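Appendix B. Raw example, untouched.
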Amino acid sequence: MSKIAIIQQAPVVLDKTRTINKAVELIESAAEQGAQLIIFPEAFIPGYPAWIWRLRPGGDWGICESLHHQFFENSVNLSTDDLKPLFDVAKKKQVTVVCGMSERDDKNSQGTLYNSLVTISDKGKLINHHRKLMPTNPERMVWGFGDGHGLNVIDSPVGKIASLICWENYMPLARYALYAQGVEIYIAPTYDSGDAWIGTMQHIAREGKCWVLSCGVALERGDLPKDFPDIDRLYPETEQWINQGDSLVVSPKGEIIAGPLSCEKGLLLVDIDAAQATTAKRALDVAGHYARPDIFKLTVDKARQSPISFTNIE
């Protein structure tokens, strides 16, 4: 058995440094309670840009520019030491950490952001870096398209883990790419919540015969900065919860064994047995004995995409 922790806490919105420091404290606390795998929500650093679902396209240009500038400046640059505190605490506590973040691209034009997810080993090393394949609806005004580079199943002390972000989990081929690599613990950081999302998590567990760990964003009006522009129009004082969270743990049988944690901040601390994922595939293995590779085949391009390549000309 292995102990996992799903962290449903708000970041210090639009403050990269303080959010990372908060993440370190949360990791230390979860590790002291025995957690070996610790999971944070989608875009935890520096916070999911929830305002994009409230602003008027083209009508709130000034607010959009102001917020995007802050968001950009507080996004993570992986070519720097931004995440060193997370690497250090993962090594110190010997835990595996999966954390969502807004990533500032350090290549090409260096002006693009990505909705990214990093997996940090218990040795304090970056072992997977995934960029969300398809930002959803207004997210496309914030983040660029990711690629297949991070569609990997990673061996960890708790089992074979893999991740997809939010509505990527509605992409059947993306899911299949993970099933076919033997995922045992399927991690789904998300901004989505509610009954439809919970049902999707149960479906994925039944389909992939894997554990599903959904980590939701729990965000209240009081979590926004005091100088947040036009806050009374976008988030009236009568509205406490901006997003309710709904983190949960689903077994390979599709049964909810913890959560959903709704409209509250907290932590789900659960013991799971990764081997149950293998046993569950006896009757149904969609990427194994229940597949038909003579009829269907999936090709996945894991190359990191770039708009330019240079050829040396002497």
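End of appendix B.
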